[in-house]
# Entry
Amino acid sequence: MPADKAHIISKLQKEILPLQGIRHAQKNIPLNMALGEMKYAFPEDHFPLGAVHEFICDSTGDHACTTAFISVIVSHLMNKNNIAIWIGQRRTLFPPALKFYNIDPDRIIFIDLKKDKEILWAIEESLKCNSIATVIGEIPEINFTASRRLQLAVEESKVTGFIIRKNPRNLNTTACVTRWKISSLPGLIAGDMPGVGFPCWNVNLQKVRNGKPGVWQIAWAWGRFRYLTSTPEQSIPLQKKTG
Amino acid sequence: MAGRFVSIWFRYLKTDCFTIRNPLQKDKLLVFVLPDHGRMVISTANALANEKGIVQGMVLADARAVYPSIEVINDNPSSAEKLLKKLAQWCIRYSPSVAVDLPDGIILDAKGCAHLWGGEEEYLKDIVSKLKERGYQVRVGMADTIGAAWALARYGLESPIAAPAQQQTMLLPLPAIALRLEEDAVEKLNKLGLRRVKDFMHIPSNTLRRRFGKQFIKKINQALGYEIEMIIPEIPVVTYQERLPCLEPISTATGIEIALKKLIENICSRLIKEEKGLRKAKFKAFRIDNKIEEIEIGTNRPSSNTKHLFKLFENKLTEIEPALGIELFILEAPVVEDISILQENLWLTSPGLNDVAIPELLDRISGKLCNSVIRRFVPDEHYWPERSCKAVVSLDEKPASEWPTHKPRPIQLLSPPELIEVTAPIPDYPPMLFRHKSVLHKIVKADGPERIEQEWWLQDGQHRDYYYVENETGHRFWLFRLGHYNEEKNYQWFLHGYFA
# Structure
């Protein structure tokens, strides 16, 4: 009875999910809509909320792409008037730019700290507070124990956390639900038009608990993601202007 | 509403202080001198010298002629104030409101204090004996007004205490100078034969005013209580304060925690009743060796949440060193604000920045990590990128204008911009290549320039021409040229940010 077996396996998988820190009760439909086909990589076809996501970047340019990609996700999490907390050491983020990703920069509280230990404590403390939508922490090194603590904190409060690791010394195992690597691709531009065009990113989902890792090439155009196809004309429709 | 004041007169303030520091000089004739018209004039003399007839105003040479063994010290006119301030701070144990009364006195607002010592007489006795133990010879006076207390301390005949509303009868037999009158007025009174207060007290005030002026009447009225006189307390009185004296000195961490919890509960119940919340709180522990241990917390929003406040203090409790033990705990709230009461929500919506949990979280972070910088950003109407947003600390400040989105801005901004080497065709083409931190970037695509002028009313300098460029690998940069292309070639190129 192969059908029966498949049924049992899927049932067991669903029971495993909460044990791995993924809660299926939380769903954010607009976010899943915005992510497009990427959502099929996640368990139950939903971006895991109430979990900690890890982003790796190797250069300052990729750091910018990672920040922008996170900003797009965060913009869906902090709709209405929720607020987010951004914790870092030497923060280079330019707040006015967040408006390009549909975030009101005045609804983000920036906390600048000196030591890694303090940053970790502040991230953990913020993740425990369920009145905020999300916490973004910039810290290069995080060990398994620390990431486990963060995961335990979010399981209690259901806040979504993002950890940006710029130039990490070693890529150790962490308790985070996903590990991403975002890098920049040449901008997309239709035909022989001048200028830089739409920013394009290579989104590499390296690890995901109970999901299927994958690689996608996307462009950020007109306030939404577009998956790149082989012909640029198809991926980027020219904006129609009247008059 | 009558007050109750104590005036302490330090008759030999400076000489007493000197003998406390140099006990060997105790039985010597001691004078302080000040130069005056080329002579040394005695400004103060100790009790022993006074007995021998050496008084203030005598020329030092005269005194030396009689008593060659006299000890002479150069006087410093400003030292009296310093000394009195120290003494006033010590006197805080007798009353929360203590003021310095130059040149040689201290005034206590003793209303409601004396009963703690078992009556006014015991109260004054305690003050005198404690000061005597320290080595100061003082006289005290207590009355409903500052003027009367002052007079009784300096010229009082029998009892130093004027019973409530009895200051007039107590003042009558005293000399005219006891009313703190000016020297000219006293001299005039003496010439007229009005040597005692009773001699002129019953003269109608308009007659007195004609001869002696307004100030004269004012002093009389202040002494009698017809006119209010204020004192400026040395340590400002904190209205929101809780005290917890201990029977036995406390030296354990648990004991301190219990004391703190109790004090917080007391102060919070009072704050809640008055619909207020504290912004700053100080927890003081008075040790038995006369030292004060102190910790302080601050909150982002007025708070009267016991648990939250205790948590803020908890991080710092280890800083308190109990040593031999603590005999008194004080919790003060120097900064208190009204709490705007939020209507309770039927549904738990997302109240954003108004949520109390967020300021509490920030309090915890700033309380534990003292070097943290917590801020938000609101748009500021400037084109210059560094000035286009300004940091605000308060959670309540709303953006005054819209966030601009009509020009591209990088998500990562370098501050300050980093110098780069550039190859660019002139006149105004974007660069072809640039070198940043010894890495060569070949530019494939570019947008620009966008010229941003210096705001001359804020800062002098050259304008910037910004280019939005992309290199071969797809990294996007924000570059600018500072200044015009010119003969001297004093323009420079900078990397200012990274686009996504």
